[in-house]
Amino acid sequence: MSVRYPRPLRPGDRIGVTSPSSGVPKELRRRLDVAIHDVEAQGYEVVVGRCMDGAGHVSAPAADRARELMSMLTDPQIRAVVPPWGGETAIDLLPLLDWDRLRDAEPTWLVGFSDMSTIITPLTLLTGTATVHGNNLMDTPYRAPEGLLSWLDIAAAPRGHQYTQSSPNRYRATGWDDYRAHPEVREYTLDTPGRWTRLDGEGDVEVEGRLIGGCIEMLCNLTGTAYLDVSAFARAESPEGLLVYVEAGGDDAFAICRNLHGMRLAGFFDTAKAVLVARTSAPGADSLTQHQAVLDALGPLNVPIIADVECGHVPPYLPIVNGARGRVVHTSTRSEVIQTLD
Description:
It is a single chain. This protein is of the alpha/beta class. Helix content is 24%, strand content 22%. β1, α1 and β2 form a beta-alpha-beta unit. α8 runs parallel beside α9. The mean pLDDT is 97.
């Protein structure tokens, strides 16, 4: 198996929208309409599925969600699939997806983060298909700040393309935009300065390897299963080692510490040459911060651990391609991720 990159998006291509996890409540449909319009304004045709109901914690029964996702991922007319956002229990789709069929089908871009890690990371590991851990559809109208890209930029790039994303050194520390009152918001409020932080020691870091990772609260439930055999992927695609990234959505420092310990014991980080940890607004505790939780669990790896990267729930967003070749550079003057679709 080698990494399979979907064909680059071209004007006129269809992009499928479905909710493998949570749907969109009626009061937020105006934001959904804005996001769809913005994608269409870039020349794409948007196809919205039936699994979009936001009345409960999932958009439809698991069988319906799995069927619709399979249909979109195997439809040669649909070149990318993006959810409105994440959710909580996309894990119920995994045994219902036809992984052999996905492996044989022409690859399609699958995009998302948070609960979508439950699907996109196994899709890369099991089928070799590159996926985008990046902003969901409801975030797509935001203009990427200087140094960062949108998932649409990445999905339109040709095979072999190399692109560099660098930290804007600012992030949003307080509040969220109210999509009910301001469905057309397109500008990030980046109200706080902040740089990447090396947790394991001092000195410059420059390291290479294929990229893989996702949301801690979601992936920790897959460790030890066939859906998250990172070591097998490394042996096949990156024997020199992996660049592993993780992000905490909302769990407190004790939960994150336990989950990362468990993931390490299960072998998730065995081939890591470095670990990137997203900036998080998740709470710490009096005796354990989020940074300390990461270092407690992953310090024994004896590899560079770089925190406060823009690849999590705190805006802005640095999209990462699962399966891409990556190079991470972190010095006193540079903090960047270089990815090559190769």
